[in-house]
Amino acid sequence: MPEPHPAASAGVVLVNLGTPDQPTVPAVRRYLREFLSDRRVVDLPPPLWRPILELHILHGHARRSTAKYASVWYDSGSPLLVHMNDVADGLRTRLAGAGVAVEAAMRYGHPALGQVLADLRRDGLDRVLVVPMYPQFATSTTATVIDALSRCLATSQNLPEVRWVRSWPTDPGYIEAMAARIEQTWAEQGRPDFTAGHKLLLSFHGIPESMVEAGDPYPQECQATAAALRQRLGLTDQQCLLTFQSKFSHSPWLTPATIDTVAELAQSGVERLDVFCPGFTVDCLETLEEIGLLNRDEFLSHGGQTFVRVPCLNDHPAQLDALEGLIRRHLSGWLD
Questions:
Q1: Percent share of the chain, pLDDT over 90
Q2: What is the pLDDT of residue 3?
Q3: CA angle 267-271-276, nearest 5°?
Q4: Which segments of the chain have a pLDDT < 70?
Q5: How many other C-beta atoms are found inside a 10 Å radius of the C-beta of residue 71?
Q6: Are residues 188 and 296 in the same domain?
Q7: Co-location of 33 and 152 in the same domain
Q8: CA torsion sign, 132 to 138 to 144 to 149?
Q9: What are the residue ranges of helices labelled H in the chain?
Q10: Distance separating alpha carbons of residues 224 and 207, to the nearest angstrom
Q11: How far apart, in whole angstroms, are the C-alpha atoms of residue 279 and residue 141?
């Protein structure tokens, strides 16, 4: 349970996607059932989707997912939750003097957004800023947080004043934080030789093309982030590529796919590939296992020699700087 906030005048809730409580089949099934039952995530009629989910996804896929979670699980718990708590702790320290309480929440799983909001209201906070931890807006991420927030408010008899952050794809602090993380990795492991054909790949989570056709602005925001980061790093679009990962269904998703691109680059003679995931503010299954293990093996098995996974921003001081600035701007008028 979060600590009480008697001196706080406003609350900030950082919301990420979610995680199983443990790397076990029952826990993963509970998490996947909640996550994949959201119509924003899988836009199929429930009578059609429910049998697929219950009879196929929650059996074979859940077991495979459990093995993946187990391969990256920390001694201290779920990587996503551990890093989210670290970010919340860092911001809590920075914002305590301004009378701001900071908590981490999950859209699916625990700690649930509704419970975190209820705890803040219990402590008397009637001003809350909700920050979906997705720099690029997407229907299946940011919009689901606002859906959940709306449902929480719909059952309250004493509504707080609420603000929320939509997205920040080209925020200067965010771009600088990503550049700092990448340059730190290069200082530690050597800078790629782009004149020799080395590449930096920016891998964003994919979404179905049908969502884009319905009006989702996600790919445009990813492209804007990539363009700003390339400019900051002084790279061309041939040296710094944009791809999409984590395809889930058989329907068309955004391309080019990360897993395909990784293999193609290795086969074409690219010796070193660095991969960074701008859309993931903290490390999680998709960055640690999918990029750090699956895509690494794909690159090396097709002839690549060096694969470098650049860590996510996590609680890097530059990320905390960026988020603190973002939060202070959105709290304007609420703080002394």
A1: 90
A2: 59
A3: 100
A4: 1-7, 336
A5: 14
A6: yes
A7: yes
A8: positive
A9: 25-36, 46-52, 62-72, 79-95, 113-122, 142-154, 172-189, 209-213, 218-233, 258-267, 285, 296-301, 317-330
A10: 17
A11: 11
Rg (alpha carbons) of the chain, rounded to whole number: 20
Nearest to 38 by CA among 151, 136, 154, 203: 151
The answer to whether position 52 is within a domain reads yes
Asked whether residue 139 is domain-assigned, the answer is: yes
Unique residue bearing structure tokens 């809730």: 13
The whole-number pLDDT of residue 166 equals: 98
> In this structure, are strands 10-19 and 100-109 parallel, antiparallel, or unpaired?
parallel
What gap in Å lies between CA 315 and CA 5, rounded to an integer? 22
Domain boundaries, position 245: 172-309
What's the pTM value of the predicted model, to 2 decimals?
0.95
Both tokens of residue 26?
Answer: 């029952």
Question: How many residues in the chain?
Answer: 336
Q: Which two tokens stand for residue 47?
A: 């009578």
**Among 110, 179, 212, 163, which residue's Cα sits nearest to residue 319?**
179
Q: Are 11 and 101 in contact (CB under 8 A)?
A: yes
- Evaluate whether residue 138 is within a structural domain: yes
Number of structural domains (the chain) is 2
Amino acid at 138: A
143: helix, coil or strand?
Answer: helix
In a domain, 2, yes or no: no
For residue 87, give the CATH number of its domain.
Answer: 3.40.50.1400
